[in-house]
Design goal:
- The chain is of the alpha+beta class.
- It is built from 26 helices and 16 strands.
- The chain has a five-stranded antiparallel β-sheet with strand order 11-10-13-14-12. It has a four-stranded antiparallel β-sheet with strand order 7-6-8-9. A three-stranded antiparallel β-sheet has the order 1-4-5, covered by helices on one side.
- A hairpin with a 2-residue loop joins strand 15 (742-747) and strand 16.
- Helix 14 runs antiparallel to helix 26.
- 37% of the residues are buried.
- Residues 408-432 and 718-763 have low confidence and may be disordered.
Length: 793
């Protein structure tokens, strides 16, 4: 019998293989019918039951959009395709795990490549046609219920491309697992590891670096999501379901290119599987791993990832580096033993490759010790001051931040959903939207704050988040260097460190900041695009009265005049003035793009969040007389502060240390006048500069017409702590208690680089030294044992 016989032609072999895999075809068809047309039918019926109103076109529009989103995302189909890809990949090549079946196929006059192609094609024919049929029937269900307008051919084509590309990648990984292994159960375990192992490793290493290098700014997690084929599939379909709501969706970048990338990766894996299938030895059937050469690297990778994950779990329970390193050691030891048991399928093989594990443990201990001791001084090194041409700084505390108003320092937050579960991610914007500050005095102030943070990294970094009695605040610095690169770090200091607040205040009241970064500065730059302006006083903006109060100005030329005048006057606001005076009015301005983008959402509501580009809340101070005169002229009836109404009374509510409420009512005109000079509505918090201190007690101002305004009061600055010492003394104590040497390299013109050595009296240092010693001893012992065994042989 020859290969030219009709019994061994490709189409004959494919037909016979398909008949033998009837169960897989049936499973695929039933699954696709359940998750696509039947699921869509139930979804539409649910919409009709709870949302349908024949007389409301908006309701029908919402239903159509919801159906379109479900049709594009097909999250249940994602889960079904993942399961079918794994089942098909393992089932099609399960014959490689049986010695008798591999001998039988090897005896046939059929090339291995042909067998591989037949098996792969059978799996594809079992799933992809069933999926396409399910999509077609789902469209038919939509049309039958009268929602044919929910079907968008372009979106549906992109969705099909994303689903098939994701399926092919998962299918190829499953086949690779089946070929690499000689046992079906082991193949399933390896398949799961190959599907998620790289992603887990990427995430675990990032988390470990965040702990050992707290100055590291974590960003851009999106790339790690593509290391897991199942997550990549969900990622593609989720993004696609969000794109159709955009006015100008970028399908090429967000949908087509990722799908093509998955197809290319799948093609590479299929080629790898083909090559491995041809060189795979038949006698390795029944072994856990059919290619012994990959056992050691595969084991070491699993040991590393699981060890780090165990360490992170231990750290989450105790927040202690000692516990974390102990968890890593436990994870490495247990995982190494489990892997050896799986490899040999024998519990007696617990310590079969103990030498390689010992050497790996020694190397890992040395690496971890070096990272924990920060031997490169990565956390505590700053660039040469002379090389810095621009600087920026943002912080958790508003008093520490000197970033641009209404913008988040080029850091954006986004979410993706996996089966309805939100997965938050933080990533850098593609381009910096904020130009760094370039004035030398501003760079010096930010550099001084960064130097304090670098010095704080000298002690026990394992407790850097727990220092101080007033809580810890984080702040991020970014330095633009002469070579075009950007140096970024984040530091942590006690929240009562006054020097950071003072440095940031100097920056916020510098001419450069006032001219470029304040809300009025940004709004004035876009004055020709702004078509909405509303002004409100204390009574207008207070939430307890009217969320829509205030006066609007619609004439764009008038708006431009007001913005130009306010911008000019705002440049004269000093820190001393802002410390003693609160704004007397608030402007809300918005560009036409924002109005179009948020059509249907009334931005007249003062409580609406304005942390977005194109929508600004701007303070107006009493000293800005020209602007106030224009507002009185163009906004008829506007009056700053509490308005034209007289204040009838001021009600003060304070609480004792034991929680007892004490209420005092002030009605005397002199007392009311005194209170009115330092009261400010709570709704003005968003536009108050942090230098204007508040006591955050509760005050209610009652106007003559019965209107009430929720207020807080100005608190004089310069208050000392209970012991009368400066608030930042804790950080200096941290710098001196541990016996730490601080080196500042530079000349008379100031520091050029700050390099802080590690404190050798801290618990962290003791642990790292012990790790280093254990690693060196283990390495020496392993080398001696290997040499002794070779000598005996």
């Amino acid at each position: 019998m020859t290969r030219e016989s009709s019994s061994f032609k490709f189409h004959t072999l494919l037909a016979n293989c398909c008949r033998r895999q009837a169960a897989l075809f049936t499973l695929s068809l039933v699954s696709m019918l359940a998750v696509l047309p039947i699921s869509m039918m139930l979804t539409i019926q649910s919409f009709l039951r709870y949302m349908w109103d024949n007389n409301d076109p908006d309701t029908r529009k919402n239903i159509v959009e919801s159906i379109r989103g479900v049709l594009v995302a097909q999250e249940l189909a994602d889960a079904a395709l993942i399961a079918l890809a794994v089942v098909a990949g393992i089932a099609m090549f399960r014959y490689l795990h049986s010695r008798s079946q591999t001998d039988f196929f090897g005896a046939l006059p059929i090339r291995r490549g042909q067998i591989f192609a037949v098996r792969v094609s059978t799996g594809l024919l079992a799933v992809i046609p069933a999926y396409l049929l399910g999509v077609a029937l789902t469209c038919g269900v939509c049309a039958a219920y009268g929602f044919a307008d929910a079907i968008d051919g372009t979106l549906l084509a992109y969705s099909i491309l994303a689903h098939i590309a994701g399926f092919l990648l998962i299918y190829a990984v499953s086949i690779l697992a089946a070929i690499l292994c000689g046992h079906t159960l082991v193949a399933l375990l390896v398949c799961g590891w190959l599907q998620f192992g790289l992603f887990f490793g990427f995430t675990a290493v990032r988390s470990l670096l965040d702990i050992l290098y707290p100055a590291r700014i974590t960003a851009r997690i999106d790339g790690g999501l593509w290391l897991s084929p199942p997550i990549a599939l969900f990622r593609m379909t989720t993004v696609l379901s969000e794109l159709w709501t955009d006015e100008a969706p970028d399908y090429l970048t967000q949908s087509v290119l990722p799908a093509l990338g998955c197809l290319v990766a799948a093609a590479v894996l299929f080629a790898l599987c083909y090559g491995l299938c041809r060189i795979r030895r038949s006698e390795n059937a029944g072994l856990s791993i059919a290619f012994p050469v990959i056992e050691l690297p595969f084991k070491l990778y699993m040991v590393s990832v699981v060890g780090i994950v165990c360490g992170l779990i231990f750290h989450a329970t105790a927040s202690d580096w000692t516990t974390m390193f102990f968890g890593i050691a436990i994870g490495v030891a247990v995982t190494a033993c489990v892997v050896e048991i799986v490899y040999d399928q024998d519990f007696h093989s617990l310590f079969r490759r103990w030498k390689s594990t010992l050497v790996f443990g020694a190397v890992a201990a040395v690496v971890l010790a070096c990272m924990a001791m920060d031997v490169t001084h990565w956390n505590s090194t700053l660039p040469d001051r002379a090389d810095i041409v621009g600087a920026d700084m943002t912080a958790d505390a508003s008093s520490w931040s000197c970033g641009a108003a209404n913008e988040d320092n080029s850091v954006v937050y986004s979410s993706m959903y996996l089966l309805g579960i939100p997965f938050e991610q933080r990533e850098e914007a593609e381009e910096e939207s904020v130009i760094p500050l370039e004035a030398q005095e501003n760079i010096d102030a930010i550099y001084a704050s960064a130097s304090m943070g670098a010095r704080a990294m000298q002690g026990d970094r394992s407790t850097i988040m727990e220092q101080g009695g007033e809580g810890v605040c984080g702040y991020q610095v970014a330095f633009r260097l002469k070579n075009g690169k950007t140096f970024r770090r984040q530091y942590y200091l006690p929240g009562d460190t006054d020097e950071i607040a003072e440095n940031s205040a100097k920056v916020r009241f510098s001419q450069e900041y006032l001219d470029t970064r304040t809300a009025i500065a940004q709004a004035e730059k876009r004055k020709n695009q702004i078509t909405f302006l509303k002004v409100g006083n204390y009574a207008d903006v207070d939430d307890s009265n009217s969320t829509m109060g205030g006066k609007k100005i619609s004439n764009q030329s008038t708006i431009i005049d007001i913005l130009e005048t306010l911008k000019e006057e705002s440049l004269s606001i000093t820190q001393d003035y802002a410390e003693a005076h609160a704004p007397v009015a608030m402007l809300r301005v918005a560009t036409q793009d924002v109005l179009d983008q948020w059509e249907g959402i009334d931005i007249d509501y003062w409580g609406y969040i304005t942390n977005m580009d194109g929508l600004y809340d701007i303070p107006v101070y009493e000293c800005e007389t020209k602007t106030l005169a224009q507002l009185r002229l163009y906004a008829k009836g506007f009056a700053p502060g509490f308005g034209e109404q007289e204040i009838a009374s001021v009600v003060s509510t304070v609480y004792d240390d034991d929680g007892t409420e004490q209420e005092t009512v002030y009605t005397d005109p002199e007392e009311i006048t005194e209170w009115s000079e330092k009261l400010v509505p709570r709704s003005f918090d968003s536009i108050l500069d942090p230098v204007y201190s508040l006591d955050y007690e509760n005050y209610v101002v009652m106007l003559a017409d019965g209107t009430s305004i929720q207020c807080t009061a100005h608190q004089e600055s310069g208050t000392k702590g209970e012991d009368g010492t400066a608030a930042n003394s804790g950080i200096e104590q941290t710098a001196s208690d541990g016996g730490t040497a601080v080196g500042i390299i530079g000349g008379a013109d100031g520091p050029t680089a700050v390099i802080v050595t590690t404190s050798f009296g801290s618990p962290k240092a003791i642990v790292t030294v012990v790790l280093l010693a254990v690693g060196i001893v283990a390495a020496i012992l392993a080398a001696w044992l290997i040499h002794r065994r070779r000598k005996r042989q």
